Each structure stands twice: as structure tokens, then as C-alpha cells.
């Protein structure tokens, strides 16, 4: 047998025994993409799985982000071509995000022209010959999908007639409940629109919370309805655009951090996984933070909002002046463009940081963050308290959880002044309750990791692959109930009607 024939035979045998995964990531958030790729890469590293990533980028940072080594790529370009013509997208990551708290008017403006961003991936998946052929002929065994990238990921996987699971990089209870089939009591389970602990909500808060969850329910229904109407010529439109349906949900969270809420066996939290990275701390940063005269290191990283290098100079001035008051501490500030006149001896600015490694460094005492789920979990795993400055979306409830668990403090954009920044830092450094609580929670997570090392995301995904046709029993009956039945309005209606007849 020739060498060429042997290679073909080996590849053929490997293909027979390999499972092919299609991974759909987020179109706008780099942290979402990184988590999705991390989970898929863990699967690939077992040597038993082939990974293809399907991507329909909206932001340039997503379009330019490289696939992991060994990944195959299936790129949908129409969405990015349309997104490049929208003026509101760059504004989401420039200095306008710092100027005021999010309002409903700003949110509505942001949705202007956004519908094609939700529908174009469906069009390309169903009608572009190359993409459609790939979905139906590659023999995918399982899809892994970020639910916050829109419905078209589910549509693409349904068109290929293979099952999929959901990987949620953040905690949005309504979406998780909708997919995993557990009831979400609108009155007290915190929504993204009302970032407030359940025990602190008053009547107005709970009313707004109900409206917030109802909006998400309406939006999910509207997206399915409009897509089904747009592609009504498809014979299987009703099946393709029925929503996400019910499946396994892997959540980048942990029950020790969240408040107790209803759940189901279909939800698997993977926030307990070991987050220690493999990046080395650059020598220039190590030399700076390991100064013998330093009492500790404070990390300042606002992720997307400083990656663009467009933080307003007045905001930078506030932070720089506040940091200068703590000359005995060293500040690592992740930012692209930093005015030379604001530099100080205790401030070291860099364009990128190995955040996980820095958080686990013995000198690190505090993280100042935007409150993204990954940053919060990394800090918790490292036992480092936080000051959270939420900018949008799930960052508000994330920091609310941190505040109520006494793991850190919250600082809103409207409260940003030199004095308030310095006051929050001083409180965190002087009151050891925050550090103590953070280290206790880190110890709890570390202990659980040792018990659950065999049940990580890879273990559960392979379990799903083995039993994908027998998992229906884990979805509660309530998942199929409509709005009126779910809240018992039909029963109340019968009682009300009977009382009228009897009176």
C-alpha cells in the first residue's frame, strides 16, 4: 500500500469515529466568542471531535478575530457588509457610552436599521448555495449555539437537520428558562431592565420587572413571527422559525453566585470550570507590580469600552487623579490611547493584559471592571473584590449580584467623579469584609471543581451526544405552556366567570 493510500485510509477511519460539531458564536461580543471557542476547543482537544465555526460578524473585532487552531470556518458575509453602513454601531464602543446612563430613547435609536442584522444570516444560511450545501452535507452531529446571536443560528442548524444545544455566556433568566423549560416568576426573578436584588424590589420595581420580562417574551415571539413571514415561501418555515425550542443549556455562571431561582435538569452551570489561563505576565508588568514598596496591585480594565481607545479625556482625568492619591499601590490600566500628561509613577498603561493571570498574582488586591460575566467570574475564582462600573446589558445585574453578596461595590456612570472613585477604592482597601467574602467564595468554587472535575462542559456535551434522542424527559411540561396558562389566568378566568354566574 502506498503512503498516499495509507494517509487516505487513516483520514477515513478518523472521520468515521469523529463527531463533527458546528459552533455558532455571537456577532458582536468578543467575550461571547472567546467562551464559545474555549468550550469547542476543549472538545477538539479530546481528539474525538472536529469543529467548524459558523460566523456572521457585525463588529470588525469579530470579523478579524482568528479561529482557533484546527477549526474549520464557515463565514456569512452579508451581515457584516450591512453592518459597516450603520453609524450607531461604532458609537456603541466609543466615548459616547460614557456620557450618560442608558435610556429607552438611546436603545430605540440603536435598533434603527438593525432588523437586517437579524434576518440576513437566515437568508444566507437558507439561500446561499455554498452555505446551504455545507449545512446539509457535512454530516454535523451537534450544534453549539450562543442564544444571544439571534434566531438564525438555530435556523441554520435546523436546516441541516441536526440537534443543537445552547451555550449562554451570560445570565438572562427569561431566555434560559424559555430554552431549558423552567418557569421564571416575573415578579421577583431579576430582569436586565431592573437590575435589583429580589429582596430589595418594591412594588414599582416588581411592576417594571414584569414589563422587562414581558418585553423579552414579546421580542422573541416577534423575531420568530417576522422571520417566518419573510421566508414564508419555505415549505418548512413553521418548523425552521419556531424559536429556539427546548434543549440543554450550558450557562457561564454558578449557583453560588446567583440568587436561588427555579431551574430544570436541562440547565448546566459551567462557571465553576478552572479559568486559569496560559498567558504569561509580561516582564515589564511583573517588574512594575512586584515593586517591594508597593502594598498591592489594582487592575483597571473596561474591556470593549477601552479597547477602542476612545475613553473621554475628562473621564481618564478623573481616574488618573483618583489613582494618584494611592501612591503606595500600583495600577495596571488597560487602555489604547493615554495622554502623556496624565501619566503617574504608580500607573502603568497597556493595550492588553493577561487578566486571569494578573488576578491570580499574589499582589493583586482589587479589580475595577465594567462587570462582564467573564471578568466577574475570573475575579471570583481568584478571590479578588471588585468595583463595578456597568455600561450596558447584563453588566448591571452582574454587578448587582457582586454588591449584594458583599464582594464589591457599584459605581454608576452618573456618579463618576474623582472623589467618588477615590472613596470607593478607599472603602475596598480599608474594609476587609469584601476581600474575605471574595476569598471564601473562591474557596467554595475551588472545592467544587475538585468534586466536579469529571462533569465539565466537555463531559456534558459528550453525554448529550450519546443520549441526544432520550433527553426530552428533562424538559418540564411548563415549557410548552402559553402565557395565559403559565400564569394561571385561565383558571382565574373560570373562577371569575363562575362567581359572576353564582351571584
From TrEMBL:
Its main location: membrane. Residues 1-18 form the signal peptide. Its EC number is 2.4.1.17. It is found in: Membrane. CDD domains: GT1_Gtf-like. InterPro entries: UDP-glycosyltransferase, UDP_glucos_trans, UDP_glycos_trans_CS. The keyword Ion transport does not apply. Keywords: Glycosyltransferase, Signal, Transferase. It is a single-pass membrane protein. The keyword Transferase applies. It comes from the Eukaryota. It catalyses: glucuronate acceptor + UDP-alpha-D-glucuronate = acceptor beta-D-glucuronoside + UDP + H(+). One of its GO terms (cellular component) is membrane. One of its GO terms (molecular function) is glucuronosyltransferase activity. Pfam families: UDPGT. Belongs to the UDP-glycosyltransferase family. PANTHER family: EG:EG0003.4 PROTEIN-RELATED (PTHR48043), FI06409P-RELATED (PTHR48043:SF145). This is UDP-glucuronosyltransferase. It comes from Plectus sambesii. The lineage of its organism: Eukaryota, Metazoa, Ecdysozoa, Nematoda, Chromadorea.
Amino acid at each position: 500500500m502506498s503512503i498516499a493510500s495509507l494517509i487516505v485510509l487513516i483520514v477515513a477511519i478518523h472521520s468515521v469515529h469523529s463527531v463533527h460539531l458546528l459552533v455558532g458564536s455571537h456577532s458582536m461580543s468578543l467575550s461571547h466568542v472567546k467562551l464559545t471557542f474555549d468550550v469547542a476547543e476543549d472538545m477538539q482537544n479530546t481528539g474525538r471531535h472536529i469543529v467548524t465555526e459558523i460566523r456572521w460578524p457585525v463588529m470588525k473585532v469579530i470579523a478579524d478575530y482568528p479561529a482557533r487552531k484546527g477549526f474549520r470556518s464557515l463565514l456569512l458575509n452579508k451581515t457584516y457588509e450591512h453592518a459597516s453602513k450603520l453609524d450607531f454601531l461604532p458609537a456603541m464602543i466609543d466615548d459616547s457610552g460614557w456620557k450618560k446612563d442608558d435610556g429607552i430613547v438611546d436603545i430605540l435609536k440603536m435598533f434603527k436599521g438593525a432588523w437586517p442584522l437579524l434576518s440576513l444570516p437566515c437568508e444566507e444560511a437558507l439561500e446561499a448555495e455554498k452555505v446551504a450545501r455545507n449545512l446539509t452535507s457535512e454530516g454535523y452531529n451537534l450544534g453549539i449555539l450562543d442564544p444571544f446571536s439571534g434566531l438564525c443560528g438555530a435556523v441554520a442548524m435546523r436546516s441541516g437537520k441536526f440537534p443543537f444545544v445552547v451555550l449562554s455566556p451570560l445570565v438572562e433568566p427569561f431566555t434560559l428558562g424559555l430554552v431549558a423549560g423552567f418557569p421564571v416568576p416575573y415578579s421577583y426573578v431579576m430582569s436586565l431592565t431592573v437590575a435589583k436584588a429580589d429582596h430589595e424590589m418594591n412594588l414599582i420595581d416588581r411592576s417594571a420587572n414584569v414589563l422587562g420580562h414581558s418585553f423579552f417574551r414579546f421580542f422573541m415571539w416577534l423575531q420568530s413571527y417576522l422571520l417566518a413571514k419573510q421566508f414564508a415561501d419555505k415549505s418548512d418555515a413553521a418548523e425552521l422559525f419556531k424559536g429556539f425550542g427546548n434543549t440543554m443549556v450550558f450557562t457561564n455562571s454558578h449557583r453560588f453566585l446567583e440568587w436561588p431561582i427555579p431551574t430544570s435538569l436541562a440547565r448546566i452551570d459551567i462557571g465553576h470550570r478552572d479559568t486559569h489561563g496560559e498567558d504569561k505576565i509580561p516582564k515589564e508588568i511583573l517588574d512594575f507590580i512586584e515593586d517591594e514598596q508597593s502594598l498591592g496591585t489594582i487592575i483597571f480594565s473596561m474591556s470593549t469600552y477601552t479597547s477602542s481607545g476612545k475613553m473621554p479625556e475628562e473621564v481618564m482625568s478623573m481616574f488618573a487623579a483618583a489613582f494618584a492619591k494611592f501612591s503606595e499601590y500600583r495600577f495596571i490600566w488597560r487602555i489604547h490611547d493615554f495622554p502623556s500628561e496624565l501619566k503617574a509613577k504608580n500607573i502603568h498603561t497597556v493595550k492588553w493584559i493577561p487578566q486571569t493571570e494578573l488576578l491570580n498574582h499574589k499582589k493583586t488586591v482589587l479589580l475595577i471592571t465594567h462587570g462582564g460575566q467573564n471578568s466577574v467570574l475570573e475575579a471570583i475564582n481568584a478571590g479578588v473584590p471588585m468595583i463595578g462600573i456597568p455600561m450596558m446589558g447584563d453588566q448591571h445585574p452582574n454587578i448587582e449580584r457582586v454588591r449584594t453578596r458583599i464582594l464589591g461595590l457599584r459605581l454608576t456612570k452618573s456618579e463618576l467623579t474623582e472623589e467618588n472613585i477615590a472613596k470607593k477604592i478607599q472603602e475596598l482597601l480599608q474594609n476587609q469584609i469584601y476581600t474575605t467574602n471574595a476569598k471564601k467564595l473562591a474557596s467554595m468554587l475551588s472545592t467544587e471543581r475538585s468534586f466536579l472535575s469529571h462533569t465539565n462542559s466537555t463531559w456534558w456535551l459528550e453525554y448529550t451526544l450519546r443520549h441526544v434522542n432520550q433527553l426530552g424527559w428533562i424538559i418540564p411540561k411548563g415549557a410548552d405552556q402559553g402565557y395565559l396558562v403559565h400564569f394561571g389566568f385561565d383558571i382565574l378566568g373560570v373562577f371569575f366567570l363562575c362567581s359572576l354566574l353564582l351571584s
